[in-house]
């Protein structure tokens, strides 16, 4: 009897094929919306994480802002606004076993080219640090003397500088020895629009000998970030607040979490289309019950049980849901691929488990909603009195 009931459900779907297809299209649209938004969120989060991963292995230690008014201009010679030589040595002692540690001089300094004068970011670094940290020169080489400097790609482009170009910093002439490739957003050194000079030249221009605006740590293992941060704070701030540690991995996590939250909200909005599809299927199933009252009466009069009538209508709703789910899965893969290519710029993470898992999730939700939408009409059809059903016009 079960096979006959299923065969009747298939027949009824075929008889009202156009109506069934239109109902399935509603489910299809809902599945596409949910699956595509889910895959987009996964791919955006993965892409952002990849972009920021190079920054996540860095810690920056700077003077505590409440320590003698640390908000003063960077590069000032007052020890209260900088990390002292002893503080630097303490940080090196704590963190050197976990990665590369280096001190940074930093200031907004005057740069002059001909009659043009403006302020730009200036860093002072040890020569060995330049070669270790800034190992991506697009042209030229590292400074061979104190009056040679590196410049960022943006600074070079904006001012039409090239290797060998000359300009002055705080009335001291310098020559461009090399140009740094664009590094984009960075948690340690923002070099794209900056000038990088030797530590000796910086100290001769701005003072602050052996004192640093910040100390950066490039970790060997990103998993050590929290431990190193806590160790520095516990030892350096034992008596009073002396330093603050900025953990870039936390910032990366916050950004990735924000992207995930936004896309999850967008997926929730997209799921409204499934509710619209559910109303459509409910309406179609109610119409199907109403149109087939006499048929239900005949089936009940020849001994068909209520549960079998119920099963027949549930089968119909399930078939419509399966049709919509299969079509939705196929279109979601095609549309999702091109949608992500346009929105994210690459499909590197498209064919991954975390991305494609949204397809069965969306199909399952669509199919369940379809079946639930058909339950009440199926129950109503099963509860009909056979005699009253046979009398219906």
UniProtKB/TrEMBL annotation:
Q: How does it sit in the membrane?
A: Multi-pass membrane protein
Q: Pinpoint the ABC3 transporter permease C-terminal domain residues.
A: 268-386
Localization, UniProt? Cell membrane
Question: Which residues are in the MacB-like periplasmic core domain?
Answer: 20-234
Residues covered by region (Disordered): 63-82
Q: What keywords is this UniProt entry annotated with?
A: Cell membrane, Membrane, Transmembrane, Transmembrane helix
What is the annotated signal peptide range for this record? none
Q: What is this protein called?
A: ABC transporter permease
């Amino acid at each position: 009897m079960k096979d006959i009931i299923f065969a009747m459900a298939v027949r009824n779907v075929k008889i009202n094929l156009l109506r069934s297809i239109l109902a399935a299209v509603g489910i299809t649209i809902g599945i596409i919306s949910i699956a595509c938004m889910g895959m987009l969120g996964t791919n955006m989060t993965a892409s952002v994480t990849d972009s920021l991963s190079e920054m996540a292995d860095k810690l920056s230690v700077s003077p505590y802002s409440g320590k003698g008014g640390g908000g003063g201009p960077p590069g000032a010679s007052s020890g209260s606004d900088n990390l002292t030589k002893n503080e630097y040595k303490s940080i090196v002692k704590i963190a050197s076993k976990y990665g590369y540690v280096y001190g940074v001089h930093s200031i907004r300094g005057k740069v002059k080219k001909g009659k043009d004068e403006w302020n730009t970011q200036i860093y002072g670094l040890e020569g060995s640090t330049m070669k270790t940290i800034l190992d991506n020169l697009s042209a030229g080489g590292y400074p061979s003397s104190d009056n040679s400097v590196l410049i960022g790609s943006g600074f070079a482009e904006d001012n039409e500088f090239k290797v060998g170009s000359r300009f002055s910093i705080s009335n001291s002439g310098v020559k461009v020895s090399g140009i740094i490739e664009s590094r984009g957003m960075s948690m340690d050194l923002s070099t794209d629009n900056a000038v990088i000079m030797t530590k000796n030249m910086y100290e001769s221009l701005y003072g602050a000998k052996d004192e640093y605006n910040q100390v950066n740590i490039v970790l060997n293992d990103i998993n050590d970030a929290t431990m190193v941060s806590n160790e520095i704070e516990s030892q350096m701030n034992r008596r009073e607040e002396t330093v603050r540690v900025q953990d870039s991995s936390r910032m990366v996590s916050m950004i990735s979490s924000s992207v995930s939250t936004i896309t999850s909200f967008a997926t929730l909005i997209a799921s409204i289309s499934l509710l619209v599809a559910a109303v459509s299927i409910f309406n179609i199933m109610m119409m199907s019950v109403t149109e087939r009252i006499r048929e239900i009466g005949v089936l009940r009069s020849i001994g068909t049980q209520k549960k079998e009538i119920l099963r027949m209508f549930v089968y119909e709703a399930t078939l419509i849901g399966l049709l919509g789910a299969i079509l939705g899965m196929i279109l979601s893969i095609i549309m999702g691929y091109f949608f992500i290519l346009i929105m994210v710029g690459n499909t590197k993470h498209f064919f991954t488990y975390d991305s494609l898992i949204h397809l069965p999730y969306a199909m399952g939700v669509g199919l369940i909603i379809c079946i639930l939408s058909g339950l009440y009409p199926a129950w109503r059809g099963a509860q009909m009195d056979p005699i009253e059903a046979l009398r219906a016009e």
